[in-house]
Amino acid sequence: MFGHVMRDPDICRGIIERILGVEVGKIAYHETQKEMIGELLAKGVRLDVYVEGTGAVYDVEMQATRELALGRRCRYYQAMIDTGLLRRGGVYGDLTCSFIIFVCTYDPLGAGLPVYTVEPACLERGGLDVGSGMRWVLLNAPAWRAEANPGLRRLLEYVHEGTVPDGDELIGDIDRAVHDANNDEGLVRDMWWSVNTVEGNAEMRGYMYGREDGLAEGEARYNALVAKLAAEGRIDELVDASQDAEALAALLAELDRD
Pick from 145, 168, 191: which residue ends a domain? Predict the structure, then answer.
């Protein structure tokens, strides 16, 4: 869902600018579900949204499930992005500034802040700019009330509560895009099967298939679940269940009872 909504360049630009408080400028390159593959035996990644703006690149991720190694995940994403930015023979000074943004539906660092901005720092002298040109921004949507910036506070509130404030054009556009997507059964079907990372969503698919020789049975069961929830106007529950194994199990149990 997030990747689909962010395909709109105006919405994508607006979200990045509201989170970072900077002007993205002209978007030269914009891709959702961008795969980045390193060396043959290295782990690949799939970025939710990758954007090349004026003088900087941006990776924006929606994180709806708790990631215990989020810091190391950011580190790995940073390495993959940087590898793609600097070609053989290039000089380090040509490395483009980069921003990695995680919009989390939980507190990613446990300190209660609505926004965590992370940059390399000199431990001996705080505030000393090491000139890395990289920044990670981790958002904690449940703490939206503590955010001082009104625009960002409204965005975090929307992520957490689904509230659409009067007069906020960006959030209105986001909500309409989400609503249109939720009413597109074919799109929801495709999104449910898609994976958010290259390593896949084996646990979810395991609920549906159970074993390799049960593919046809699993697909029929899945189609029945989509049809049931679409008829009841509950497609948003299916989207949520695509990232929550317990929620999916509950929906399938409900299907079996009917």
Answer: 168
